[in-house]
Amino acid sequence: MKQYYKLLLLVGLLVSGASCKKYLDVTPDNTGTLEYAFRNRNEAENYLFTCYATLQQFYDPTSNIGFTTSSEIIYPNNLTNHPLNENGFSLIRGTQNSASPGVNWWDGENGGQALFRSIRRCNIMLENIDKPIDLSPAEKARWIAEVKFLKAYYHYYLCRLYGPVPLVKTNIDITASTEEVRVKRSPVDSVFNYCVQLLDEAIPDLPPVITNQAKELGRITQLTALSIKAEMLATQASPLFNGNPDYASMKNKDGQPLFSSTADPQKWKRAADACKAAIDACEANGLKLYTFVAPPTVGSLSDQLRNELTIQNAVTEKWDVNPELIWALNPTFPCQGYATPRLTPKSAVNIFSNPSTFAVPISTQELFYTVNGVPLTEDKDYDYANRFALKTAGDADKYYIAQGYTTINEHYGRESRFYANIAFDGSIWYGNGIYNQDQAYHVEARGSGSLAGPKDLNTLNITGYWPKKLANYLSVYDDGFQPIEFHLPLMRLAGLYLLYAESLNEANGPTADVYNYIDKVRARAGLKGVLESWSTYSKTPGKPTTKEGLRDIIHRERRIELCFEAQSGWDLRRWKEIQNVLSVPLQGWNIYESEAGNYYRPHTVLTPVFGLKNYFWPIKDNDLIVNNNLVQTTYW
């Protein structure tokens, strides 16, 4: 029985994670011994790519709770077909439990991957890296650095989900005693510090950028590691982990506290320093904010559409020519068909080519600023009370809303990021095979008789809003769907700029540098600086001059700039703000109504369920039985 428990515990570190495509999909076939796996350089390289294998699974947004639980997108739960893993989208409906946790990255179940197995692979690689005699010292150093990054990132990902997690610095030997196998949680600061230590060890031996993109694009670089180090330290400094009173009583069974009892403001200083180091390295290697350059197939463009394409293509541009992209994964974004409405008569016939089921609630579109660069509720020139009143588009609106089309006031006079991110009834959809701006398609979404309207329970958008940003403007949905693939960023320069602004504001309060890095991102979106916008247009002109007011602005800037990029769900958690966001019903329009006056009536489509316990994942009940040194997450 003793040996049985030991084997069960080891299985917890060995649950499988699937590999991906191209060279990172290589797994040694019929590998019987470690000696064979590391007998020469080629076999060892194959094993290196198995260490990458689980990382490549992070490309799927349906298993990323930063995407599925942010409330940016609602996925319907009453479809008759189930083409996606719905576990992640169901979590905001209150489905999480400790018997069989959804999106379980501890055991590798219900949409999650087994990260402890991935960590074990990394340890095996580090323990055997000296065996291949034909491996050059330079290549050996690089591979060690890559594996240390992966090991750090897997621990970090677990920590974001579970808080305190066991640190697997070395693999547990199969001959270990039962008690040695029964690992316990490590305090959150120990986990973060270990992850940062691994990155610090890795960074000097990583290449700054990938020069051989045909063979190595997707492998870890110095810029990746520096940027993720900055994100780790900002996460550690954030209220969820830094002196969180809600988890002050969480301890191991031996009484060891797992959360710090008081907040340490110096953590923000370390995060700010790391952000600046990453920014300096990125800019020194030629990275900059993306600006759209029209290819020969595109005709003349208005300033409005050019701005829109700049924002959209900052995400969907090809990886190898996007100067803003710091890090992405090899597999391409798999869900363009869920973000694209039907725009043509042929697409309405071929409804099964694209489900179009990623629905954006009204609350997400209301995040975006007015054209004056301030929130709808704060703009003294904006008639918020009459935002749902009907209005017909004129010539001045034609590059955002179809001329002569009736929609609501709220869709007019918005910042360019609103039009680049979200498609709505009457909105212009530039691209889809038409590159004359005066002949561009527009969305028709009112009622079942409209092109984009509901046809059945499997190809409908339940709110009347689509995440346009997640579709490449060159993709064509007509007689079938021909997508132009892209890699969803895990880190891009605009996000790093805003992370630096956030960390610097938390460390020092408002300073010129804080405003500078926010304003870089705003200027790219065609907006004036924070101070100018608030002093000129806001009902609260002094808001950006205080640390608290600027914090609110920065948080909103990140949610706007990184909308639909699987970032907001993580940010809202680390800020301890997601409980407020998910405390109100999520609404859309009456999609079955064909008349504008009836269509544009807010309608609740989902009432989220989120309590204090949902900030961190439960450990599966059976794991606690197998390992009685583990303590359950507080509140579960």
UniProtKB/TrEMBL annotation:
InterPro entries (UniProt xref): SusD-like_N, SusD_RagB_dom, TPR-like_helical_dom_sf
Q: Which residues form the SusD-like N-terminal domain?
A: 23-223
Keywords of the record: Cell outer membrane, Membrane, Signal
Signal peptide: which range, if any? 1-21
Q: Which family does it belong to?
A: Belongs to the SusD family.
**Location relative to the cell:** Cell outer membrane
* Name this polypeptide is given: RagB/SusD family nutrient uptake outer membrane protein
Q: Which organism is it from?
A: Mucilaginibacter rubeus
* Residue span, RagB/SusD domain: 357-636
Asked if the keyword Signal belongs to this entry, the reply reads yes
* Record GO cellular component, one term: cell outer membrane
UniProt lineage: Bacteria, Pseudomonadati, Bacteroidota, Sphingobacteriia, Sphingobacteriales
